[in-house]
Every structure is written in C-alpha cells, then in structure tokens.
Amino acid sequence: MTSHPTGDELSQPTPPTEESPSSYIPGRLLHRSFTHHPASVLSAKASTLFLSDGRSILDACGGAAVATIGHGHPSVLDAISRQAQDVSYVHTQAFTTPAAEDLANLLLEGQPGGLDMAFFVGSGSEAVEAAMKLARQWHFERGETQRVHFVARQQGYHGNTMASMSLSSNVARKIPYQGFSYPHVTHVSPPFAYRYQRDAESEEDFTNRLVQEVEDEFLRIGTDKVIAFVGETVIGATAGCVTPPKGYWAGVQAVCQKYGILLILDEIMCGSGRCGAPFAFLQEDVQPDIVTVAKGLGGGYAPIAGVLMNRKVTDVIRNGSGAFVHGHTYQAHPLSCATALEVQKVIRRENLISQCAQMGKLLEELLRREIGGLKSVGDIRGRGLFWAVEFVQDKNTKAPFDPKIGFGVKVQQDAFERGVAIYPGAGTIDGRRGDHVLLAPPFNITRGELETVVEVLRESIMSQEALHG
Ligand SMILES: *Cc1c(COP(=O)(O)O)cnc(C)c1O
Q1: 119-150 pLDDT tens trace
Q2: Which numbered atom of ligand 1 lies nearest the CA of 126?
Q3: pTM recorded for the entire structure
Q4: What pLDDT score was predicted for residue 4?
Q5: Which of 32, 61, 66, 125 to mutate to test the pocket of ligand 1 (most atoms within 8 A of CB)?
Q6: Which domains, and CATH codes, for the chain?
Q7: How far apart are CA 281 and CA 297, in angstroms?
C-alpha cells in the first residue's frame, strides 16, 4: 500500500538513506525516476560540473549534446543580463524584438541550403510539432487536404509530445501510451549500416534498397496521402550517432520530389555545428524543405528550438492564407533568443565549428586506438564531436548483451564514478536489444580533456567487461 505523507512528513524531509548520496534531501521535485536520485550540481565552468558533494565531473556529452561552448562563457552571461534589463517578454501577436529578428537573420545568413525563414519555440518536441503542422498547412493551402500521413524511420527520435512521439520509434518511451498516437505515421528501415546492411550488399546497394523501401512505402500509403518524410540527418540518441550511407539523403529527396512530398530533417541533436558543419545536411547532398534545430542552438544557456523552412514552403503560405496557423505564448522568447544569438556569435567568433571538426578527428583517432580493440566494442561511429560506441557480447556475430545487464548504462555509471559524464543508450538495434554510449562534448573541449575522457571510457568498459563478459 502506498502511504500518503502526513503534515509532519511534509515539513520534515526524511534523512538520506544509505542508497542516496549524502547531498540528497527528498523534496517536492519530481525527478525522472522515483528511485534514482540525480547528482546535485552547484556550479559549472567550461566542460566541468561541480557537485554538491565536492566532486567534479568532466562533461563529455554536453548533457544530451546540448552544451556546445561549455558553461559560464562571459559574453553569454553579459548578453543574458543585458536582455533581461532591456525587455524580458513580449507577446508575438503584436510585438517583436531585435533579439529574435537578429537570431533568425544570423542563422539563415546566406540562406544555407535554401532555408528562408525561422520560427522559434521552447523545445525540440515543440519544434517537431510545429514542423508537422507547417508541412500539413502547406499541402492544405495548395488544396491537397487529403494528405495526412507521415513516413518516419525505425530507431529515430523526434520528441515526447503526442504527435512528435508518434514519429519517434523509441519503443521504451512509448509503452505506456499505446493508443495515444497520431494514427497516420508509419516507419521504414533506418540507414544503419552496422546492423542493417547485408553481408553481400555494397554501400550503394544498401542505399538503393533503403530508398526503394521509402518509395514503396509512399506507394503503399498512396503518394497523394503523404505529407512528409521525417528523419534525423545523423541519427542521435536512439541508435547512437548513425551516419547514413552515401547517397541516401539525395535518393530520399528525389523520391519525395517525385510525389510532391516534403522532406523534414530533424537536426535537433546532430545540427547546430555538432557534426562539424553549421547544419548536418550541408555534409549530405540534400536540400531539405523544413529543418528542426534545438539542443545546441542555445548551448544549454536557454531553452530554445527552431523550425527553419525553405522558400518553397514560405512562398505557398505567404501567397495563400498569409499566416502560419500555430503559435505559443513563449515563441521567440526575447531572453532565449538573445541567449542563443550570443551563443551562435561566440561559435562564429571563436571558430568553434571548425574546431569541432578538428577535435572530432582527434576523438575518432583516440577512440579507435584506445578502445577499438576491446572485446565488447562492436562499432565506433559518428561525425564531428558526435560519437557513439556500440557494445556487443560477441564481436564476430555482433550478438548484443542480454538487455537485463544494461551494459551501456553500467559503463556510463562506471565512468561517472571515475569523474566523466557520458550518455548511455539501450535498445540500439531495434528498441529492445543493443547498447551504446554517446560522446558529445563542448566544441571547445581541450585535447587533454579528450584524452582523459577516452582513458576513463577505456577503464570503464574494461571493468564492465570483467564483470559481464
Ligand atoms: C532531443 C530530441 C528531440 C526532442 O527535443 P526536446 O527538447 O527534448 O523536446 C527531438 N528530436 C531529436 C532528434 C532529439 O534528439
């Protein structure tokens, strides 16, 4: 039976038990888990987090690929303070601010990939919802009101709100919510070579098979029923930094264009410089119609996300009804926009995207050299400063560990005890089997710090192999 708190318990928190860290005092905040209490962070500087129990943690995953310039950057702190003094909030029905205007102009300077306008919201899930509605409205304005369907991919993540969750195939996060989904979504195979490319298949064969599957799915649904194809340019947390085979995005785009279907690229995790280019799609031969960005956009200094759209999209709405039928109280929030604007200026001023590309090469080299030979390391993959290590029980057969072990989480916990934060993932292969850990440090992480990260990762993997191998 669940016991409900009495008035006494409300005012007298129970003392910490042996399982909980000494710094933890049970309070009113609902954490992700009722049993696992997160470490309390009192301050942070650059790539290091300082905990309330005196320990410091080197953050090798930027939270969840969020921190791009590290913590406590003086010019961002100044920008936040200046904006707070200038104007904290206005409603976008009647007002705009230089911060929001400047952020859109800076991000879309030179119209990268033909991207024409930006719409700012507060989180990645909100951005995906907005992208879905924008794509639907685009067809609606063109009189194609029968289009209601989205095609996404297995092993992709697009958010946790109801429609964005429907696009996601992250099985564990959907289990309690069966029947809640937006019904018109189907999923095709992920462009995930380590698991899904057949032995006899060349990279080109693999690409062709995947693109054919997309076209077959459009034909099965009815090509005049599909609104958009949605995918992460480089797959993030769900499968672990999976880069597509050569020609994949160009092939998918050609099929979309053939049937008047829009292409939405979700760059919430892989974009904003993370892969070593301003947008991940710039490293692929593709011009998306709509792009979502979030995590790295504000670098963790403010909650902000963006929906960026091509001229083809804005023209139809501009010349049609003239308004995007969507909005939020906090859209284009001045504080969030001013913060993200300065984060993006820092990235340009300090040349951090090319630094990300360079440090990424070093990280790859270190990973391949230091852990590539370990017996549980099946695959090392990624781009820029966005890398994942997939674990296997048997390297030859690629057989994964028993999911009950939670090998990726064990490695993450072990590394945390050694002072390095990495991001674990489970269900790497199909939502149930497979383990990986993800590395996504700030772009200005130092060479020495990267060496420490890989050294600790090596120790943690070896110690977990000894326990579970
Ligand atoms: C994190 C993420 C989202 C969701 O963003 P939230 O800010 O957590 O709502 C959507 N798509 C991708 C690819 C992500 O990595």
Answers
A1: 999 999 999 999 999 999 999 999 999 999 99
A2: 9
A3: 0.94
A4: 35
A5: 125
A6: 41-59+351-468 (3.90.1150.10), 76-349 (3.40.640.10)
A7: 16
